[in-house]
Amino acid sequence: MSDEVRLELVLPADPQQVYDAWTQPALLEQWYCPNPALELKVQADVRDGGEYVVAMGPHVVRGTYHEVEPAHRLRFDWRWDGDTDTPTDVLVDLTPDPAGTRLHFLHNGFATPEDVENHRIAWQPTLDRLTALLHTPTPDRP
Questions:
Q1: For position 61, which CATH number holds?
Q2: Backbone angles phi and psi of 2, in degrees to 5
Q3: In-domain check, residue 120
């Protein structure tokens, strides 16, 4: 079995808007958890070597940004508090698409097949929430 979660989707926004949704804490707090019932708090210092902390109710994930290319790419490690496994790696690539932005998502380096499946089950609804957020008109966006 694969040790990765790989997803691809087209989002209804330009690459800068999608990048902002991945990097601005106020936007991340609107979508970055598969369970909308959990309180979500995000701290993010989005720069090479910067750190982030995401509290999804009682669940906390944290890591360090390793690649930050505005409107194009983010790569960061991912470690759950209390987990002694080696951190996993998340890569988000954004490319322009006629319908908005094509997002290539890769989360890899899991220790067990169960970890892969648990994250696959969580990432899909999380990215669905991102899609819904980007479909919502804002005063800045028609």
A1: 3.30.530.20
A2: -70, 150
A3: yes
How far is Cα 131 from Cα 136, in angstroms, rounded to an integer?
Answer: 9
Provide the β-strand partners of residue 109: none
* Total tally of structural domains belonging to the chain: 1
* Domain residue limits at 46: 4-135
Q: Per-residue pLDDT for the chain (142 aa), expressed as one digit of tens each?
A: 578 999 999 999 999 999 999 999 999 999 999 999 999 999 999 999 999 999 999 999 999 999 999 999 999 999 999 988 899 999 999 999 999 999 999 999 999 999 999 999 999 999 999 999 998 765 554 4
Residue 140 resides in a domain: no
